[in-house]
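## Example pair
The file below holds two records. Each record gives the amino-acid sequence first, followed by its structure token line.
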Amino acid sequence: MNYLLIGLGVFIAIIGLIFLVAALLPVNHMASRTILLKAPTDVVWHKLTDFANMAKWRRDIVRVSANKNVKGDEIWQEYENEKSFMAFKTLELIEAKKLVRQVVGENLLFGGRWTFDLVAQGNQTQLTITEHGEVYNLIFRFVGKFIIGHHATMDKYIEDLQQTLG
């Protein structure tokens, strides 16, 4: 019986420590990756902004749909499966140079935006993706910082983009 109580006490202490560490982490974070893609800027730009067809080349989504919010803004929903989706709004679009997309919705566990900066390098494109994220949920904040990392989704996105560009 004492071992059970000691084990339970250790478990509760670990959970408490996780919550304490997560509470001390900032809500906001920034992560960035830069890559040289073997495709011209116009081709890369088309892939980045053809939201309706992203499910054809991204492994993390099964379909995409477009809707309007109450303000009339175009909102793109990226479905991870048939029931779960994340919604995005385009904040800035500078042809073949810059794209800024923001997570939108209510009661989210996290939020933020991705900025895509493109620079032509001859027949190639330098792409920088910068995430300005906010993680409101303490468990998600801990997992994002110490287990998954803030670059994980970005790295998958870049890998899928490289594959589709050839």
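Second record, same layout:
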Amino acid sequence: MVNTKQHSMYSYGSVDENGKKRTSQDFTRLARPFIDRAVNKIIKKNNPQKIILFGSYARGTPNFHSDVDLLVVLDEVKDQIDDVARILGTIDPAGIAIDVIVVDPKELERVKHDTGYVYYYALKEGVMLYER
């Protein structure tokens, strides 16, 4: 028996049940519960200052191959790889690819105007999902 309440994003596929190609709006609508659940878990377990959605989901242009890009601002980043692994370990992406980037407020302030950093684009086009 299939549990219809617990879907993987990929179970939806790039076409709907009628064979019609899904639009960016379809993917945004379908991904929203997964994003909300991930953000709530990040907040609960990691106490971030901010969480910013950026990339194709923030622009409203996701497709079947898009991942969810999150910039997580922590009070302190001790080890970027360990901090990202810890955050990813707290969420259940349920079949949707999630990319997490962590930064502390000092580093973000230092490079926020530098187009050579992804932080610039996250701040420019991103959507604030959480702010403490």
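Notes on the second record: The chain has a mean pLDDT of 85. Residues 24-46 form the longest helix (23 residues).
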